[in-house]
Amino acid sequence: MNAQLDAIIVDDEAPAREVLHSQLERHCPFIRVIDQAPNARIGYDAIRSGRPHIVFVDIRMPFESGLDLIDRFDDRDFYVVFYTTYQDYAIDAIRRQAFDYLLKPIDPVDLQACAERIREHYRIKMNENGDFHRKLEITTSGQRHFIRHSEILHVEASGSYACIYKTDGGRLMVSKNLKYVESLINNSKFVRVHNSQLVHLNKIRQCNYRTNSITLVNGKEIALAVRKREDLRRRMAELLSTDNEGGFNA
Predict the structure, then answer these.
(1) Are 223 and 158 in a shared domain?
(2) Whether 5 contacts 56, CB under 8 Å
(3) This prediction's pTM
(4) How far is the C-alpha of 27 from the C-alpha of 10, rounded, in Å?
């Protein structure tokens, strides 16, 4: 598996950020740095919006430490790598279930070993959790958005636009048509149930073939095109078969 992993660097020292960025580019080309932050406050916003796979974070920073920053994420879904000049915080890092703890100046060999372990762990998680870590990356109105496939209920066509409905109740209108968004998602767990609807199979609560409709887990009812019924039956059967084999995840 040659997945690219997105990373964010949080460090109050600009030279240290640039050195780490350069080392990652040179020694860990499968890691892409999507953002850098000079403090915990900006780092928090960057992590929330960027949804990275990995966060490299310094510990001692003004106003709010790297430890404090990580404590703000109750349900963390990214790997944390603390990197610092000080050895005294190893226990604190362990308590926060950090993936690794690197000392400055970072040894490229240590960095590469850390990155390879993360990649292997991620590969295993992907095999276990299906689309949990897969993300849709899309730009609209000049802003880049990252949405995990597992957070998408359905995508609805609206003329030359598409509206992405999320499990948290939010939605995002994008200036691309449904076919384009479908090609970006490119995930077998999504199925066209209508010319205007792309649905996440795991978010379907009920299929009613008499009324040609489906009900999503949030109670929303969506029309099912007659010509799409057999394909939906087949895809649902495949999903249930995977579930019985222990490979089903929402």
Answers:
(1) yes
(2) no
(3) 0.58
(4) 19
- Looking at the structure, do residues 148 and 102 belong to the same domain, yes or no? no
Let me know how long the chain is. 250
Residue 46 lies in a domain: yes
Q: φ, ψ for residue 175 (rounded to 5)?
A: -85, 45
Closest CA to 158 of 197, 125, 121: 197
Closest CA to 91 of 64, 67, 123: 67
Q: Name residue 36's amino acid.
A: Q
Amino acid at 8: I
Helix (H, G, I), strand (E, B) or coil at 54: strand
Segment holding 116, helix H or strand E = helix 108-129
Domain shared by 60 and 150, yes or no? no
Half-sphere exposure of 6 (CA within 13 A, CB side): 18
Cβ–Cβ contacts within 10 Å for residue 126, how many? 15
Cis, peptide link before residue 105, omega less than 30° from 0: yes
Choose among 240, 238, 204: nearest CA to 222.
204
CA dihedral 66, 72, 74, 80 (to 10 degrees): -20
pLDDT tens per residue, the chain (250 residues)? 467 899 999 999 999 999 999 999 999 999 999 999 999 999 999 999 999 999 999 999 999 999 999 999 987 889 999 999 998 898 899 889 899 999 999 999 999 999 999 998 888 776 655 555 578 888 887 788 889 888 999 999 999 999 999 999 999 999 999 999 999 888 878 999 999 999 999 899 999 989 999 999 999 999 999 999 999 988 887 776 554 443 333 3
Strand (E) or helix (H) holding 243 = helix 229-244
Structural domain boundaries, residue 193: 144-244
